[in-house]
Prior knowledge:
This protein has a single domain, classed as HIT-like (HIT family, subunit A), CATH 3.30.428. About 25% of the residues lie in helices and about 25% in strands. The protein has helices at about 15-20, 65-80, 120-125, 135-145; strands at about 5, 25-30, 35, 45-50, 55, 90-95, 105-110, 130-135. The strands form two sheets. Strands 2-3-4-7-6-8 form a six-stranded antiparallel beta sheet. It has a two-stranded antiparallel sheet with strand order 1-5. Helix 2 (about 65-80) packs antiparallel against helix 4. The longest helix has 17 residues, at about 65-80. The model is unreliable at about 5-10 (pLDDT under 50).
Amino acid sequence: MGTQDVSGSEQCPFCQIVNNQTDTEVLLSDDELVCFRDIQPGASHHYLVVTRRHIENCKSLQRDDIPTVERMVEMGRSVLERNKVSDLADIRMGFHLPPFSSVPHLHLHALAPASKMNFKSQLHYGPQSHWFITVDKVLSQLKTRGKVK
Length: 149
């Protein structure tokens, strides 16, 4: 389906980061997740939290992935706090919906301050974007339907 071991994804740039095959600076990591800066930031603080296990995108998530998504959010908040983001009410966290995912590997965007994002960033990550789904909506859909629509 939409998941596979990292070893089966040599062409995936995020799998390469997870496997330390790039010079990308990893800001936080654990047994399941890795966090680094977005190379095309949409806000002053823009970090990506990726799963070590290759999952295609948010539509590949199942109900039993809820704890993974929750840990992704925790790591996103943690890296924002470590980088001195003091207003955690002014953040934006979520996923791009396929086919608008730039990399076909599940990655959570953690952006701050959301209120200072420019027009282009608002199109990509803002509340009116048709390309972006907030983490709250993803979790709600997983809990009620068992998959993301």
